[in-house]
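hey so u asked for the seq, here:
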Amino acid sequence: MFLVKVKRHFQITIPNNMRKSFNITEGDYMEMEKKAGEIILKPVKMVHPDQAYFYTKEWQQGEAEADKDIAEGDVLGPFDNLKDSLNTLKTVKI
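ran it, structure tokens below
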């Protein structure tokens, strides 16, 4: 159990080891609940489950790689029509 002080504007500081344990960072949201005379705080991540993949480390690495390729001009296209784009894809060696 940790003792925290209510400061100006009714703010409290969550102890460092609790923040790390629950992966709470600045700007995160907390759900507050009153239960049996106690205040319960629960971390809430504001990412829709259907979009959680976008925030994975692997996806973000791919995004960074794509951004780099675009910045360096290492892209194909743009194409005027679907036929041209499909023909180009058939010739690309991966």
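The helical segments are 16-21, 57-71, 82-91. The beta strands are 29-35, 38-44.
lmk if thats what u needed
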